[in-house]
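Let us begin with a simple case.
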Amino acid sequence: MNTAHASITLPAATDGTLALINHESILDRCWQTIELHPDRLGIAAQLIDEEYRRSHFLGDAAALDRLLTLSETLLQNCSESGEAYVLAAQIASLVHKFDQATQYLVRAKELGAPAHSLLRQQLSIDHAIGHNWKDVFATRLRLSVQNPSLQNLVALGALYAEMGLYQEAEQSYLRAITEDREHSPFSLAWACFQLGVLFGETLEPAQPATAQYWYEQALSYMPLYTHARVHLAELHLDAGRLGTALDLLLPIQNNEDPEVSWRLAQLYEQKGEAHEASQHLARTLRNFEHVLSRHELAFADHAVAFYLEEGDNPEKPLQLAMLNLDNRATLRAFELSHEAAQACGQQTLAQSLADRALTQWGHLPAFAHSNVNSARKPSLSSAQGATLTSASQHPTLSFSTT
């Protein structure tokens, strides 16, 4: 078990409940201002941040609808503003419409948008779609040195984690937390959540006790953090701690995030309460169908796991997985598509996906533990356990130019 967290003191932050109240007040004021002054780009930028918070922290999918409405308003009223197109690109990225986001950035550059705004958004797009990671990594590393803000360090940590450089990912996340000076419960909860994902889902084998610690710290900063509650509840479900899992899920049981009702369905199934389980499972299906009908690209990857496990049509998760892969050819997207192809018995497609993944991502340390790696997985000594992989263990690490 990793014990790095035992040696650090977590910084204080504004009370999370109070921060949410302030967030809702700011959100209302921003929308009122935009309705009266749709050309106020500074307010629009703040709106994007606040609506993203609703989506990420509170599981509010309707926030994405409002953001797309904001994008239309900006482009209608500020059609000759490069900065407006940068904001539209940011919104398109949030709903995973990366081709559209790229087109908006091209137009933003033509209209003279600031170089730093273009760079920030291009980095986000390239990172998300698995494009040009060599330059993305170099730039993120440089930015984190020039300005070691929580946002820069978490973004760098996320890239390290996807590459399979887990020690560096942990160190970057820890620096983001310990060196933070803004004391925002949103930002600190986000960084703690990323550490939970690192230890609970990214590492192979996982370290659930360490993941639990970090999810709990995320909730100490932001008690209604929906994703953190769901992930933590899943750990407790896996360990058979049904009462603890239920305590985490009940405060958010009315949330329309499909993952909430899915975990409740699994919980009641484990408790042997078939009627409750079937009701929550039916609600999960409705919620997934609803969000997919409105934001298919944004929820395709999340839906694949559900339909693979609970659905009766193996073609549906494969269709969604391939859609996601076409949109963002990351190693994770290849893994989902490979799993879905195998579930459908399409071994030729599965092998083709494995070959493509090897060509594009075989140079990454993360590929060694990937389900698309046809080579024998390296074993870990009993002394190492789930030792975090570091760059020093991979001196020949290089990047594909695709």
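The second case is a distinct protein. As before, the sequence precedes its structure tokens.
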Amino acid sequence: MPELNSKKTWQDALSNLITDPKELLTLLELDPALLDEAIIAARAFPLRVPLSFVARMQKGNPDDPLLKQILPLGLEMQEVRGFVSDPLAEQQANPVPGLLHKYHGRVLVTLTSVCAVHCRYCFRRHFPYADNNPGRAGWKQLFSYIAEDPTINEVILSGGDPLAVNDRLLRSFTNELAALSQIKRLRIHTRLPIVLPDRVTDELIEWALQLPFNLVVVVHANHPQEIDETVRAALLRLRSAGIHLLNQAVLLKGVNDNVETLVNLSESLFSAGVLPYYLHVLDKVKGAHHFDLPKAKVRELYLTLISRLPGFLVPRLVREEAGELSKTLLYP
């Protein structure tokens, strides 16, 4: 007899990810010759991808743009000059565990080391999360640091993915944050509404509506194929709750390095209530060199994109550079 209340939750989906390269290749009917290298690369940076994201990939296609973002490759193990473990020197801007302070007026907090998906180009793939997971016990130190600097008026929750934690923990954190009257905005950088749209629940919406400060949610989609009907419904639900929705993407060789893809991405995002925000040049993190694009190609793509879209649908092309006080705007 089936159990009562046996409906699957987003937590169930998050705990039932594909982490075995063999399972992924079998499910997508891909060449088993890819397996040996995938196993080696996954030892250094594990494979992690929700079934809901895999379902949007084309079976038998090793060049699928979603697959390329998550499949471990032997190329990741190559040492390439200029590609390093901490390309943004974040460990130098890490005054207390779980907090990064790089820019004036805002700090970034990592509530968890967990992500629903491991993107192979992630600039934090080597980040020392073991030393930067403050847990509830570390919140006092975080809030003290913020309170001692009255110029800080925005808190950013970022990766690991903040929506990988449960609503109860989110509510506890923001209840304590609300005691700091200097905070005007909460920003959440998250991939979950894209890769696991079931995360957008009644409870999450209720939490968002009760916040005493403005909430901005920055999602991360790189290709229009990522935005299916389930994702669009989840994003529109967030938007209907009055949440400001932005997207940041990364320019990736073999994934979105053509104008038609970038145009369709902006159009798909806007139809789902999301404004294109940033288009990042790849951060030179060790293991991701095969996604990099020549500067001339980047410039050509972006100038063509400007000619194809209205200004409000053109994301700002940026590069993040270690030690700088803001992101560097390219080809304004």
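Strands lie at 99-103, 106-109, 154-157, 185-190, 214-219, 244-250, 275-280, 316-319, 328-329. Residues 88 and 322 are 4 Å apart (CA to CA).
Keep these points in mind for the review questions at the end of the chapter.
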